[in-house]
Amino acid sequence: MQVWSPPAKTRGRDVVAANTEPDQKADSAGGRLTVSRSGDIATITIDHAGKRNALTAAMWAQFAPVLAELADDPGVTVLVVRGAGADFSAGADIGDLDAILTGESDGGVMTEAEDALAAFPKPTIAAIDGHCVGGGWELAGACDLRICSDRSTFGVTPSRLGIVYPRSGIERLVAIAGPAVAKHLLFSGELVSPQTAAAWGLVTKVLPAEGFWDAVGAFASLIVSRSQFSIRATKEIVDAVAAGGDGVAEAVARWLATPSGDRAIGVAAFLGKRPPEFTWGSGTP
Fold first, then answer.
1. CB of 54 within 8 A of CB of 25?
2. Helix extents (H) in 95-143
3. 86-116 burial string, b = 16+ CB within 10 Å, else e?
4. Can you tell me the mean pLDDT for 222-233?
């Protein structure tokens, strides 16, 4: 096995890498993040056995450095975030809540992880099976796309704990589902079905639990096969539209000025009735 050397600010944590099986392990007391690779697809797995993948403060803190490594890796085109075993994540580890919520930003290390995931420059997919609750939803909501199995459950539960949900999490929930749905979830703390989650716009696709992971892999591979020039430009522009302000014009102008041979490749492939083999982004972060 190869040893992954984390950046200076993460040294001291036990992070191990290999080439095929889950290959980077960001260990913490009682849980870990695992990073695996399959071709151009990287997967971050939330792994906290016995606690439905609830995240400790140390696990939350690992997201930003791990995401920074993957963002700079030219071999990574698409990122999938999932949970180990039968659940995505039950959210913050209640036993570690004080440490999780303590920090410079509202929401502490939980908000820092969410913001790092939302800012990841490449397409992200939350693959949700089982419980996706509280901070687990916060991570899923920070991804570009959310795909779930038909045995998933969703909830946002601060009203059960007597806490104020982090501002960034509320803003993102309102942006995704609207004020009424956000208030329903936050006020009630109820768990809802995948069908309800889809109707409310929380997820983009509901798939059968049987064969779910194969379907997720196939969809991620489909994204890999498309023009990364188009996808990366679209991601930045859509995010700028959602954020409001003057960022939209700047993003459009920057991407229009970015050289790419993908349009010529796509048009030639269309006219030749063959699948395109896009080249933009190959070998660069």
1. no
2. 97-101, 108-118, 135-141
3. ebbbbbbbeebbebbbebeeebbbbbbbbbb
4. 95
What is the mean pLDDT of the segment spanning 125-144? 97
**What is the H or E stretch that residue 35 is in?**
strand 31-38
Return d(Cα 281, Cα 84) in angstroms, integer.
Answer: 30
CB-based burial, 209-226: b 16+ in 10 Å, e otherwise: eeebeebbbebbeebbeb
Q: Helix 228-243 crosses helix 262-271 at what angle (to 10 degrees)?
A: 120
Cα–Cα dist 221/216, whole Å: 9
Longest pairwise C-alpha distance within the chain: 61
Architecture of domain 8-225: Alpha-Beta Complex (3.90)
> What is the chain's percent helix, strand, coil content, to nearest 5?
45, 20, 40
Domain ranges (residues) in the chain: 8-225, 228-271
Does residue 90 sit in helix, strand or coil?
coil
Residue range 17-28, pLDDT digits in tens:
323 334 555 544
SS (H, E, C) 132-188: EECHHHHHHHCCCEEEEECCCEEECCHHHHCCCCCHHHHHHHHHHHCHHHHHHHHHH
Cα torsion 114, 44, 224, 4: sign: positive
Residue 108 region by backbone torsions, left for phi larger than 0, else alpha for psi between -120 and 50, else beta = left
The burial of 245, by beta-carbon neighbours within 10 Å (0-12 exposed, 13-18 middle, 19 or more buried), is given as exposed
In angstroms, the CA 260 to CA 121 distance is 17
pTM of the shown model: 0.87
